[in-house]
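Lesson 9: reading folded outputs for more than one chain in a single document. The general rule is that every protein is listed as its sequence immediately followed by its structure tokens, and records are never interleaved. Here is the first one.
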Amino acid sequence: MLVLVALLPAMMILIFTGIEQRNRSIEAAKQEISLLSQAMAELHMKTSRSAKQMLVTLSQIPAVQTLDIDVCTVVFQNVLSLHPDFLNITLTDLNGEVLAASKPIPSGTNLKDRKHVREALEKRAFVAGEFIISKFFPALPAFPFAYPVFDKNNQMKAVLTTALKLGYFSHLHDISKLPQNSFVAATDHKGIRLFYYPQKEKTNPIGKPISSLSWEHTKSGDSSGVFMGQGADGVQRIFAFQQVRFNPDAKPSMYAWAAIPEEAVLAPANAALARNLFLLFLTSVLSLIVAWIIGQRTLLIPIKNLVAITKKFATGTLDLHNKPALRPDELGTLTAAFYEMANIQERNQKKLIENEARFRLLLDGLETLVNVVDMDTHEILFINEYGKKLLGDITGQVCWQSLQKGQAGPCTFCTNKSLLNEDGTPGKGYSWEYENNRINRCFFVHDRTLYWVDGRIVRLQVAIDITEKKRAETLLAEEKERLAVTMQSIGDGVITTDFAGNIVLLNKVAEDISGWMTAEAIGMPLEQVFQLVDAQTRKKCMPSVDHIINAGPTIGIETQPVLITKNGAAKSIEYSGSPIRDSQSEVIGVVLVFRDVTELLKTKKELLKMKKLESVGLLAGGIAHDFNNILTAILGNINLVSLDKCLSDRAKELLAEAEKASLRAQGLTQQLLTFAKGGDPVKELSSLEKVIKDSAEFILHGRAVACHYNFPSDFWLTDIDTGQISQVVQNIVLNAIAAMPKGGLVTISGKNVPVLDQGIFPDGSGKYVEISIRDTGIGMDAEAIEKIFDPYFSTKKEGSGLGLAIAQSVITKHKGYIAVESQPGKGSAFTFYLPASNVGKLPAKAIQSKIVSSRSLKILVMDDDSMVRSLTESMLNHLGHEVILTKDGQEAIATFQKALDNHSLFDLIILDLTIPGGIGGKETAQHLLKMDPQAKVVVASGYSTDPVMARFREYGFCAALVKPFKLESLSAVISEITG
């Protein structure tokens, strides 16, 4: 190895020298072919200048300028004979027609399609063309030139052309001194091969493009270049090219090429390098032989003696007291050191025995199981006293048979493979837990490998008994599981924190309400996840963790809090918080319990509104009943008096005004009756769109307010009380008009809604229609919106405060819902929903004819109000009927029974529906019909919205008479029933 290392620099020098010689050869060859390509380019330039001079001279001849064809032909022939390398000389007119030529040409030959002719005409100067195949005989490859002919007035008359035979280059270049496969060539500016010498028509034909790889090097923009590459014939060469330009500023018209085979350039350098390397190889072999002979005597024999001593060490033989005679060199010194080492090792062995005894005492004193196992045979080599107490003395037994039971082979969880490196040497330790099924104890085990006293690799296992710890952990895990199940089953949201206020736990309900998942919320500050603000002021109202800890067992709710969820939504909640204490009563955190009461608060508000309406309804019902009785007497008497023919016109006008006032009072009564308890709307299938448009246009007539409608073409029909819904629309539109004193726009839109929220609507399924009435008025603030549907609340000075309360009552009785949105200065929008009908279109209405009866009837009238009784009697007497009056149901039943006994039946019975403190019309009618099923009974009441009035036939009545009524209404009902 030393010899080889010594010879390595010489070898590197030879290789480096050979490479340098190769590089120099390549550089010399590049310079040579570069000069050759330049010489070729210069030669072509001279040829081109000669062609130019020839054409210029010819253009000055008078015969040429005057286009004397015969003279020109003779002159061209003489010139061509002096320049045989040119193919032909021609004179063409400005249209390219050949006028004269040095050689015979076909008739009608035209050269206008030649590039050099066109450029001479355009540039009015000498031009060199590009590779062509001559049109003249013989058709040869050539390189053309052209020059324009001018007359004495400098007017261009014709064009002189000639072409250089490309074969001309073959005798201008001598490459016999170059290596074989060298060549010289020329190409035009497009890379078309004009000349290639020596010729190779199969691989390098004239007139064909050169290799694309070679042509790419000419595109660098340099006037000349040298590169190495593969030619079209597959030979690796060194190429050189040179541009040929006729003018410094012009583009190159040709390229001159030269190339030398790379192999020919490098062959001398390669041969010298191979020769030098062979000589170096012979020198190396001789040096190695000499080195082996010297090393055998001076190194190998003493080393063998030293190896023999080390083998004794390996077998444990340390008795080397008879030291042999040693040589006074390095190996002799090393052998003496080995003898000294043997003495030291013998002393250390005695100490090791003593240390082993102490180590055994130490291991036997540990309350930990320690054992050593052979990794190949699984034999237990050692077990300490603690292990013997648990398992017995199992030294020498197989581990998987003695440490475990029920094993048919090595344990599947054996750690042997995890303790060794890839090369089989001892690796890192491995810690794990397992349960010994022989003694039913759990251990935390740390295994590692080490070399045993005899050199083999063994597994040392230290196992700590953790049975009690595992039992405690199991109990703790079960307790945590029970706690987790309990937390997840709680219907309220629960959040717990540590003492610093960082989130520890969220249950599922808390995740749903807050929008925070437990995984992302753990460790975050409580106030970042549980953000509370006041419902009114929107100021933060979240108590700190310190406040919860210091407040005692529980803190309550001082204001209505709103929780801001992760996505920014606001939810009204109720919550309470308490400190969490450990077994020593030390505070370790806080717990918050909360619930979402957003929908509950909405429900409470709606119930509160309904209670207000119900209270007002009770009051309105009583007032309306009595007021209608009074109006019945007033309106009826006015009606009777107006029939007196002796009245003056002035009296009739006054009575008409009084009747109008009574009818207005009747309208107010109808509004009050809307609140009356039990007042169901009298529904019929209707076009809600028509009802809304008719109502809005009636109110808006003559107002400075415009109204736009937006209803779909398939807007659903509804079952509604058209009068009540019209009243709703009119009340809302009136409010819109009041909110736009200077005029504005009311937009009424309708929309079909398939399904709505079950938490808001009484019938949470089915179809609904949505009506939105929006104005551009002054709007309302939040306080006004909160009270807008309260009875007697109004923002108008002249308002009664019943309009929107009536609207809500009507919509509610239609099983719908109404809401309002508004902002100060941005207008208001009232939206109400009504159940849609399943009927697709309105049925055709039957035309009823009015029949008036003049027959005298016997009529029984029951009413608790004396004025109404007296008025009814007067009206019926005026119509020619006999009237019997009763004040309550008992008297009416008794009177009817007496007439029945006397066989003097009543033709008609008119019963008041409501009798305070007595039997009303409904119960009375049931008694009368039992007595005479053929009896004709009419119900009369001021409660026009009472279910009996709406569905009178279901209760046995023939007709319904709404108070207050006029004489015409009474007569029409009697005529309809009695015919």
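And here is the second record, again sequence then tokens.
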Amino acid sequence: MADPVAPIFGWEIDMRANRREWMWGMAAVTLASAPARGMAAVATTALPPKAKPLPLSSVRLLPSAYATAVEANRTYLLRLSADRLLHNFMAYAGLPPKAPIYGGWESDTIAGHTLGHYLTALVLMHQQTGDEACRTRADYVVAELARAQAKRGTGYVGALGRKRKDGTIVDGEEIFPEVMKGDIRSGGFDLNGSWSPLYTVHKVFAGLLDVHAGWGNTQALQVATGLAEYFAKVFAALDDAQMQTLLGCEYGGLNESYAELSARTGESRWLAVAERLYDRRVLDPLVAGEDKLANFHANTQVPKLVGLARIHELNGKPAPANAAKFFWQAVTQHHSYVIGGNADREYFTGPDTIATHITEQTCEHCNSYNMLKLTRHLYGWQPDGALFDYYERAHLNHVMAAQNPRNAGFSYMTPLMSGVARDYSTPADDVFWCCVGSGMESHAKHGESIFWEGGNTLLVNLYIPAEAQWRTRGATLRLDTRYPYEPESRLTLTTLSKPGRFAIALRVPSWAAGKATVQVNGAAVEPVFAQGYALVERRWKKGDTVSIAIPLDLRIESAPGDADTVAVLRGPMVLAADLGPVADKWDKADPALVGTDLLAAFTPVVGSAGSYATRGIVRPGDLSFVPFYSQYERRSAVYFKRFTDAAWKREEAAFLTEQARARDLAARSVDTMHLGEMQPERDHGLTSEISYPVSYRGRNGRDARSGGYFEFAMKTRPGPLILQASYWGDERARDFDILVDNVKIATQHLEADQPGKFFDVDYPIPLALTKGKASVKIRFLPHDKSAAGPVFGARLMTAATATAPATRSAPTT
């Protein structure tokens, strides 16, 4: 039977059984039918055709977990040293730095990206809280950037580095004259020895534009314009083929910044540059409505679509909008986990394959940060509750999980594999991952999407305690709520200098199935339900209240790809089984759920909001369920295999055996290398010649051609170790050596070894090669006129004990 579909701003979106519950339910109004792709359909609703958020500066958060996150972040932002973040900007411009450089990514060739995020975060924090120290700090940074830019005299200003072949890191500006001559060398994240330089340029560019928008700092616009002029010349030197080669390296949302500069200045030439920053390989299929996202690095792509959304707002062309809409639909419906995040090890997998990618490396925070930006653009074009159903899901369950409010640390990934602890940055880390930067921004603006307005309507999209000034009506709004722990949210028109007739639209999430109830001044009313909202239109006066009660029932949701891999939710909130503190090692079997009526076995824990006890359904034993986002320093289980009682009897032994095998492999693993993927290769210091990342049958890897090699570092552990490498079983004949610290340990011949499948080979490492070492270098070296690999991942692990289950095949040498 065909899946039901529901049109959402002009597309038909699959609404599969046990999938994301985006259907309006009983309260939905019938929407006009529309083509699967194209511009939005005209819906017979009372919602305004367009909307805009109330300014962040008009919103103040009331006590809640969101307000706590903002305050923790404010302390963190003001603790950072602007001069340390400015170090390379000054040094490379020939000016004396005022403070030493930070470590981590800021000491690598991607240096400077954090300062761009920092500028934006300071602006947002000033708007959210009114803290003048944030404005003063941002103005100082801009003035220093202007000084560095003036010293260079080219319009360029930057901190990014360039690693030369001798390993020294120098000013990254020297790569751009090479690029202008057509010398463009990139593996996707490196460009002529610099790490994603245009990505870093975008962060600085965006930060400058945000300071200008924040309070009219004209110096920020001048510095941004100089930077834009510089790179416009770089791009103008390239023909279309060269430009596409350049855009094969991550460029962030640089198209968005050029489009925004055009809007600020009224100069169409900047919009022309924005339109040229168009990666055909990724974006053409999206314009055509084709999901070819598998094996693309996720966060490299999302900002491109945010940029296309902004370009559409300025040029009115349908193609950029179509791509942005289709991408949002594909990601949220077919590539997202229950918490709203996406990607495994930073990469998209095939559509509807989430159930097979529940790992320790799921859900990079930057992806959700950018997806929420894209959602805001789409919502402004045509308000639709489905957009904020997704926004709420990702905001509550992923963004809020990605900051530890106890120390303002940020997570890179939010792991969904059972028992895996979140890894947060700490003030002493100096890591400055990309997700530290996006985390600074995310937790400075929790009030930005609560209230929207359009036409004669006020829309409430998020139920977060807050007060706001609604200037259109001269109103002071107060939203009191303990949602999602309690059903009711109450909006009070504390002041209203322009009373009269208008509509208030309260979002009714799709999972509520239209069962929300509304009261005005304590009396029940019958609202109009339309496109995910309960609308009340009447003559409003000062002191009026409107409240909505949304049922927060438990429900089960399946992971895309397997109806029996499930998660448990309470309203918008993902629940997790509490597996104990991170200090306690988790080495038990993944919990499973067994029974025909699972939810009946959940009992609310009195006095503990959002917590449940279970009885008789969890194997191997009962567990407590709590809000997932709040498990900052606890281990969790989010996804569970679901069995009937009969199925469990049949499959228990096999399930537990596989769990034991997986636990043994995890316990024995010392280090894992995901070849062909940006961050793991950087983390392991990969170096190579005549070597290329590959992607095949949903797996990433790397090969080396004759005369080349690839080499990377792996951590060791005392005792006998085994190197395990993964290959495709249908390779053509090839021969290569595997070396450990330049000592050959094996020669591998590949030639249709195991047709039709991937297979693993174990290479015992002589103890003398690892004894007393913290790490070793693994090199794959092809024989003359042959190739090495492709290798689809490598693992260093301890030798199996006599009682441990076998894991992989014996070596072929």
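What the second record shows: Confidence is low (pLDDT under 50) at residues 1-44, 802-813.
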